[in-house]
Specification:
The complex is a heterodimer of chains A (403) and B (323). Chain A is an alpha/beta fold. Chain A is built from 14 helices and 14 strands. Helices cover 44% and strands 19% of the residues of chain A. Chain A has a 7-stranded mixed beta sheet with strand order 7-6-8-9-10-13-14, with helices on both faces. Chain A has a 5-stranded parallel beta sheet with strand order 2-1-3-4-5, with helices on both faces. In chain A, helix 2 runs parallel beside helix 13, helix 4 runs parallel beside helix 5 and helix 7 crosses helix 8. In chain B, the strands form 2 sheets. In chain B, strands 1-4 form a two-stranded antiparallel ribbon. Chain B contains 13 helices and 4 strands. By secondary structure, chain B is mostly helical. Chain B is globular and about 65 Å long. Classes of the chains: A alpha/beta (403), B mainly alpha (323). At the A-B interface, strand 7, helix 9, helix 10 and helix 11 of A face helix 2, helix 10, strand 4 and helix 12 of B.
């Protein structure tokens, strides 16, 4: 046994040596490598959106890395797969902070993953720019390194209830959520404001179920709500909506930006045609400055950009600008310097509009949309029409969610 | 409390529960039959179940791509898909037994159990890998056949879809066929003999290894059928969909008395009904304090109570008698 252990140690040392060699070689050339990490689900049920975030960031890095490379830096994008799971996101975050070359993180998709992971980034003041995390807690903690280019759920929930009240003329609503900080959070904001407006809340149910929604649908159908709101993400919402229609539920479907993926129609088909959803990210095809981005994205990756790809593109652009500002004089900047510079960076020509952060890392004026699903063909997801568009400033004082 | 509503949804919840219960019963058979002959829990059975669902969806998508899905009469399509799913899952179960369990036959009991858990992870990720390469998809959608979605509206709150009738009919057919095989045929007698005493059975001229393979084949085929019915009923599967239903079905097998075939059926039905009623009535009865999310807690609490008073399960455990 003892001899075996000796071999094991030897083998480990050999593996370590081999692993460390190329890294040492790279650092010897030029001034070093600057890495930008992405963290989003690249596998599993939400991979369509996560992949879009990675590719959007990749496109921006390839396009704007020139300035830094002229100064002698090597610029790389390192994608991480957080699998939409908090534990995986945190484990990746620990790997990320251990790699000294990583100066910013673009991510995540899920607020429930972003919140614990950003606690890790904060330890080393590593800048995080989120393209998609809408839960208020993300920025309300007031961390100097955490920013986002999208809107917030306390606003999005209200945009939703306002629309349900004024346009959909809902008298009663049934709310289902996915028990994550994102889904439950936005559902609670929707509920609180809907109650204020006098809409009757017929039910408020949380579920982690992915396939069998019978137990929720049966009582829901009996209560016959005007509107059914799903606070969560499309991979759960789609089978829920589909089974609801199949069981004869007549209410109109509604949801937050988690619905915004072509996979919603791929799974639910005709059941979701005509449904409304709110979003903190307009379809890239409808954003006036994003035309070139859409073209380039299609040419390079052979598909339409999913929602949040354009936001990830802007986030990565800001990351590079922040690093450039911090690297004045051609020195390798520290993580603190980058985080400070990112917070100050303004992007007057962002493809999703003008971007500027307020004191806690929220976008000063974020855009909110209400969209309508146009067709049951997933290829035509980009044709979804904007029904309503609003630019709303982030609330200054934190509005804490109930939970 | 809205009593009218409580009574109004009762038949619909009963129907939901029966469908779920039959699904659990079919899966539970795989656990219980293997336990009966080997006294070992085949934890890879949940993946064998979902593998059937994947083969089923592939057959349906294949038929759709060559335009036969609407061309063939729908009962024929269903039978085709069921047979394909059953064959695939049955063969997979036999292969798993041959590769991962038979070499460990003489080893202490925990060893094949660990092997089974390993196989379960292996199969999950293998299915995920193949589907990602082949379709670049994680969630697969069962193509809808319009006939199956037809509904008979019996009242305001109750309607029965063709789909649920098909699922119940299919499950009943499977259970009846299994009953005939186990109790009325020579092979069934051999299976029961091996379950009772392997050494004596082999002295009577029964090829024990062949019977064990056959047990896996039948148990796997039942799982595959359940997989196809699961896909048809709920419409969406992913490589990890099998895990939770598998766990519940295993519980159902224990509830009914592990190793006991009618026990697995009863256990599955009881668990399915408990779950459906807990989910639908919990929030109605508690005024929203406890939502449907607490269904498993309620269902499993009742389960623990039953097992405290009947530790061998509802119909009693079937354990080999040792001389």
């Amino acid at each position: 046994m003892i001899r075996h252990r000796g071999y094991l140690v030897l083998a480990l040392v050999a593996i370590l040596a081999v692993a460390l060699l190329p890294a040492a070689n790279l650092d010897a050339q030029g001034k070093g490598t600057i890495k930008i990490a992405t963290q989003s689900p690249l596998s599993g049920g939400q991979a369509a959106l996560g992949e879009g975030i990675k590719l959007g960031a990749q496109l921006a890095v390839e396009k704007f890395k020139g300035t830094l490379e002229k100064q002698g830096f090597k610029v790389e994008l390192v994608p991480f797969d957080d699998q939409a799971k908090p534990d995986v996101g945190v484990a990746n975050a620990k790997n990320i902070i251990a790699d000294k070359d990583i100066l910013t993180v673009i991510g995540h998709l899920n607020s429930g993953v972003a919140i614990p992971s950003s606690e890790v980034y904060k330890e080393v003041s590593l800048a995080m720019i989120s393209p998609a995390n809408t839960n208020p807690v993300v920025t309300d903690r007031g961390y100097p390194n955490v920013n986002r280019v999208c809107g917030r759920d306390d606003v999005q929930g209200v945009v939703g209830s306002e629309f349900a009240h004024a346009t959909m003329k809902a008298k009663s609503v049934y709310i289902v959520h996915d028990k994550t900080p994102y889904g439950q959070g936005v559902a609670e904001f929707f509920k609180a404001d809907a109650e204020k407006k006098g809409i009757k809340i017929l039910g408020f149910e949380g579920t982690e179920e992915k396939s069998n929604f019978d137990p929720i649908v049966t009582p829901m159908k009996a209560k016959n709500p005007d509107v059914i709101y799903f606070g969560g993400i499309y991979d759960q919402a789609a089978p829920f909506f589909k089974q609801s229609r199949e069981k004869g539920v007549k209410g109109k479907f509604f949801g937050p930006d988690g619905m915004d993926s072509s996979d919603l129609t791929k799974i639910a088909g005709k059941a979701v045609v005509g449904m409304y959803y709110t979003s903190a990210a307009g379809p890239a095809s409808e954003l006036p400055r994003a035309k070139a981005f859409v073209e380039e994205f299609k040419k390079k990756f052979g598909k339409n950009p999913e929602p949040y790809a354009a936001e990830a593109y802007d986030a990565a652009t800001i990351a590079l600008k922040g690093i450039e500002a911090a690297a004045k004089g051609g020195k390798m900047p520290s993580r603190e310097d980058v985080a400070t510079a990112v917070r100050k960076t303004k992007l007057p020509n962002g493809i999703t509009g003008d971007i500027e952060f307020d004191g806690k890392g929220d976008r000063k004026k974020a855009l909110y949309f209400v969209l309508q699903v146009a067709s049951d063909d997933p290829g035509k997801w980009g044709n979804n029409k904007i029904v309503k568009q609003l630019a709303i400033a982030a609330p200054a004082a934190p509005v804490a969610p109930k939970k | 409390m809205d009593v009218e509503l409580l009574i109004g949804i009762f038949p619909q919840v009963l129907l939901d529960g029966i469908i779920l219960g039959f699904m659990y019963a079919l899966i539970a058979l795989g656990y219980t039959m293997v336990y009966g002959v080997l006294e070992f829990i085949n934890f890879a059975h949940s993946e064998i179940f979902i593998f059937g669902a994947f083969v089923g969806v592939e057959v349906l998508l294949g038929l759709k791509s060559i335009g036969l899905l609407d061309g063939l009469p729908w009962p024929l399509v269903l039978v085709l898909v069921l047979v394909a799913g059953m064959a695939a899952s049955g063969l997979l179960a036999v292969t798993v037994e041959r590769v991962a369990y038979r070499p460990l036959r003489g080893a202490p009991r925990l060893i094949p159990l660990i092997s089974a858990i390993g196989i379960s992870f292996f199969l999950q990720d293998l299915i995920r890998l193949v589907e990602s390469l082949w379709r670049n998809a994680f969630n697969l959608v069962y193509p809808t056949m319009d006939v199956l979605n037809l509904r008979f509206e019996l009242s305001e709150t109750i309607d029965v879809s063709v789909k649920s009738l098909v699922v119940i009919g299919g499950a009943l057919l499977m259970l009846w066929a299994l009953h005939l095989i186990v109790n009325r045929t020579k092979v069934g007698t051999a299976i029961r003999a091996v379950a009772e005493d392997q050494a004596a059975a082999s002295l009577m001229g029964i090829d024990v290894n062949r019977i064990i393979s056959l047990t896996f084949l039948i148990g796997g085929a039942m799982g595959g059928a359940a997989g196809v019915l699961f896909g048809v009923q709920y419409g969406l599967i992913n490589p990890y969909s099998g895990f939770i239903p598998g766990l519940k079905a295993f519980t159902a097998a224990v509830l009914g008395g592990i190793g006991n075939i009618p026990g697995a059926m009863v256990g599955g039905l009881v668990l399915g009904l408990l779950e459906a009623f807990a989910a639908a009535y919990l929030s109605l009865l508690t005024g929203g304090a406890f939502g449907a999310e607490y269904k498993d807690i309620l269902a499993f609490s009742i389960l623990i109570l039953i097992l405290i008073f009947r530790p061998k399960g509802l119909l009693g455990e079937v354990v080999r008698e040792r001389a």
